[in-house]
Amino acid sequence: MRWLMLCGLVGCGMAWGVVELFALQRARYHAWRDRQQTALPH
Q1: H helices within 1-42, ranges in order?
Q2: Number of C-alpha atoms within 13 angstroms, CB side, residue 16?
Q3: What is the mean pLDDT of the segment spanning 4-13?
Q4: pTM, whole model, 2 decimals?
């Protein structure tokens, strides 16, 4: 039972890490895109 709980905890942590990574990449991409758009001469 303890082993199952440990596996669940590790899996949850990994899933959370992946979600955080995706959110970070998305935020960085949006910031970069906004910078590219403002850099373009209108």
Answers
A1: 2-39
A2: 6
A3: 96
A4: 0.60
